[in-house]
């Protein structure tokens, strides 16, 4: 099968980036106290949002295959890093050290089926696997019934 390509175009002014992805436009920015215009989420929150969106999409595909009654998922995702790495301290990692995912699954399915959905979703979600396969980020993921 041929590879599917994904692409964006962006333009930036200072720390504000306008991103065009097909018919969609969004901003990646910083708050005003960090020199931005606060037009959008910062890059790290954008990454965590991409993780939530990807996990949700893949979970819906997997749920259909499993004949799993999935009404929705609410994600709370937290990434933790030491900001000294971003500020140039070469002795400190510049990326998330941990990512904690808490998912509330709106379903009438059993906890065992929820865990099966989680495992299959995690194994197929490209964003989750990009982060996991770095082998540098400790990912803790918990899925529970809402």
Automatic annotation (TrEMBL):
Listed GO MF terms: peroxidase activity
Catalytic EC class: oxidoreductase
Gene3D superfamilies according to UniProt: 3.30.300.20
Pfam families: OsmC (PF02566)
Record-linked SUPFAM superfamilies: OsmC-like (SSF82784)
Alphabetical keyword list: Oxidoreductase, Peroxidase
EC number: 1.11.1.-
Record protein name field: OsmC family protein
Species in which this protein is naturally found: Bacillus spongiae
């Amino acid at each position: 099968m041929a590879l599917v390509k994904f692409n964006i175009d962006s333009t930036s002014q200072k720390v504000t980036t306008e991103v065009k992805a097909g018919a969609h436009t969004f901003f990646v920015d910083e708050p005003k106290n960090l020199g931005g215009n606060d037009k959008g989420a910062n890059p790290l929150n954008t990454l965590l949002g991409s993780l939530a969106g990807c996990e949700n999409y893949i979970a819906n595909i997997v749920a259909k295959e499993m004949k799993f009654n999935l009404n929705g998922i609410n994600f709370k995702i937290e990434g933790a890093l030491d900001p000294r790495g971003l500020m140039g301290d070469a002795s400190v990692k510049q990326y998330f050290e941990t990512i904690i995912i808490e998912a509330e699954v709106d379903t009438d399915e059993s906890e065992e089926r929820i865990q099966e959905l989680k495992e299959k979703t995690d194994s197929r979600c490209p964003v989750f696997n990009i982060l996991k396969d770095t082998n540098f980020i400790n990912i803790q993921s918990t899925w529970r019934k809402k």
